[in-house]
Automatic annotation (TrEMBL):
The keyword Methyltransferase applies. Residues 122-331 form the O-methyltransferase C-terminal domain. Residues 21-95 form the O-methyltransferase dimerisation domain. One of its GO terms (biological process) is methylation. The keyword Thylakoid does not apply. Pfam families: Dimerisation (PF08100), Methyltransf_2 (PF00891). One of its GO terms (molecular function) is O-methyltransferase activity. This is Ubiquinone/menaquinone biosynthesis C-methylase UbiE. Keywords: Methyltransferase, S-adenosyl-L-methionine, Transferase, Ubiquinone.
Length: 349
């Protein structure tokens, strides 16, 4: 039977499948370019020919040709004549001295997501984070096992810091902390969030509430910014331990995505019980569309939580978070749409 017009695929549709089918190849090409310093070199000295790039990076031209072909095909490099230059995206996100770089996140993808997501089929069948077997330890979550691998934990925290930087400035603008006395950033990592907030609100006292090894990293970062008089880090488990004393604002950045609906509801109830009247809870992370059609970032992030991190979470919809807040007692909720598919939802007791 001859194919009909409806059956015919256009080149854009085929290319779209090629990008998905070759995703692992294109990512490893990107990671190779970051590690070799191709984007850094072109940012400083470009445009350059392939021969010039090979000479400066001490590479053979044949393997370099393969790498730049992948970078050109995916739009990360531009080529005019025989000279190569960075795309705008590469200059912003893939150059080491860019304030918006995501190079640690690229390495995290290589070191963690690639290894763990090999087991995605098993994770779906078993509804369990089967990919966790790739990492040392016997704890039930990746975050606990990272303590066994200090280098990997450092990369993880650097990657989370890069992720926070992308939208932190926006988040700060939407948070009214004028009457807040003590903000606690639950799962606050290296302190990047509270440092940004403390600089915006000079009166603010804030605390990171995280695992012991992460709190040590946060304290060093806080001290490096000269904010130890107002900021601190306290070790604890948000499910088992009480929140730091006198908190009137509880913030969760990229945290509720980690857990199941049941666990998230439990946390919202605990927040409501812990906060004083007019106290606030805020969640800040990438959001899934309410109609469950995307965005791509939600589709990219969710398998990680299933197959590796905890086996429980995903990127939930705006409506889900808001309904869970209201069910816990937070009758007033407010949502703020931010860039890069991020969102901020604030609930008031």
């Amino acid at each position: 039977m001859e194919p009909t017009t409806e059956d015919t695929l256009n080149s854009a549709e085929i290319n779209h499948l090629s990008l998905i089918f070759g995703g692992h190849i294109f990512f490893q090409t990107l990671r190779t370019a970051v590690q070799l310093g191709i984007f850094d070199l072109l940012n400083k000295e470009g445009p350059l020919t392939r021969q010039e790039i090979a000479k400066r990076l001490d590479l053979q031209e044949q393997p370099l040709r393969i790498v730049v072909l992948g970078l050109i095909s995916t739009g990360l490099l531009n080529k005019q004549g025989d000279q190569y230059s960075n795309s705008k995206v590469a200059n912003r996100f893939l150059v080491q001295d860019s304030p918006r770089k995501i190079t640690a996140y690229v390495e995290l993808q290589h070191r963690v997501m690639y290894k763990g997501l090999y087991w995605m089929l098993d994770a779906v069948r078993e509804n369990k984070n089967v990919g966790l077997k790739e990492f040392s330890g016997d704890e039930p979550t990746l975050y606990q096992r990272l303590a066994h691998e200090p280098e990997l934990e450092k990369i993880f925290q650097e990657a989370m810091q890069e992720l926070s930087v992308q939208t932190n400035a926006e988040m700060v603008q939407f948070m009214d902390l004028s009457d807040v006395k003590h903000l606690v950033d639950v799962g606050g990592g290296d302190g990047t969030n509270i440092i940004a907030l403390a600089k915006r609100w000079p009166h603010l006292k804030a605390t990171v509430f995280d695992s012991p090894t992460v709190c040590e990293i946060a304290k060093e970062n806080i001290a490096a910014h000269g904010l130890s008089d107002r900021l601190d880090a306290v070790a604890g488990n948000c499910f088992n331990d009480s929140f730091p004393k006198d908190a009137d604002y509880l913030m969760f950045c990229h945290f509720f995505t980690i857990w199941s609906e049941e666990k998230d509801r439990e946390l919202f109830r605990k927040c409501y019980e812990s906060l004083p009247p007019n106290g606030k809870v805020a969640i800040f992370n990438m959001m899934q569309h309410d109609d469950e059609t995307g965005p791509l970032t939600a589709a990219i992030g969710s398998p990680y939580f299933l197959a590796i991190a905890t086996g429980l979470g995903m990127l939930y919809t705006w409506n889900e978070y808001e309904s869970w807040m209201r069910d816990a007692g937070f009758q007033k909720t407010q949502r703020h749409n931010l860039s890069l598919d991020h969102g901020l939802i604030v609930g008031t007791k």
